Amino acid sequence: MTTSTTGLVLALAGGVGGAKLALGLSRILPPERLAIVVNTGDDEQFHGLHVSPDLDTMTYTLSGLYNPETGWGIDGDTFETLQMLNRLGADTWFNLGSRDFAMHIRRTELLAQGSSLSQVTAQVTANLGIEHPIIPMSDQPVRTVLDTDAGTLSMQEYFVKRRADPVVKSISYVGSADARPSPGFAAALDAATAIVICPSNPFLSVAPILAIPGVRDAIAGHGAPRVAVSPIVGGTAVRGPAGKIMQELGADVSVVGVAREYREICDVLVLDSQDANLADAVAAEGVEAAVMPTIMQTNEDKVQLAERVLALAADLENRRS
Quick check: pTM over 0.90? Predict the structure, then answer.
């Protein structure tokens, strides 16, 4: 297999795992050949500020500012601002670093001046020296809401405040019916010669993107090679509550379950080597299986996986031509 050297790669991502693969892709592809579309269903208001957790994780990762211990936030950040807010009586269950606050202040200021979320993201990423486009999935608000045994919870209430402990009964993407793909997302969908679904939570990171009217159908009917990397390895999520949510919603907590979620929008599903025994079961779901190491602990791991994913897309394109 050889890596394609032409065309636009559209990467769909959310969370730490998605940002890791996106970083690998950005080390291989020039800015004009990569469009990174990021979930904004996690966005929330805290302390009067617009916080975009997945956009921020992607921004800090590609700028080199990210905390390597957590994968999110800014390396070396303190929480003195949050501690003072707590002393002043604010509810501070959502961790925001003192330097991180600057991002949310600036984003909120620019939004209040009339800029779209896409325009704000383009400005702050450029100011941080990021050349590859990081694109919000929509400029209209879409919010991931979970119906649980503890009541209706926003994504951040469920994941951070409740530590993903409540049992999930269903998930909805409030506002999605009235949302549109952001201009950058719509343009990338039209121009893409390969689509990569990063190893992000299928329900909390990828599904909000697909919930925007027209997006799922556009990817399902797209002529470009579509490669997804499974966030489930060895029957559990590499990070976060994906496995727990899949089980509670009645899905198979395995790469086979991921294949069932993605079979309409994916040609090849990348499985970690430890799931090689499930390759035939994935193929039985109508999705081609590719087996390789997918755990990304170092930057070299991220680049190697990105190279292999691009090679799979190129190989699929060659077989079709």
Answer: yes
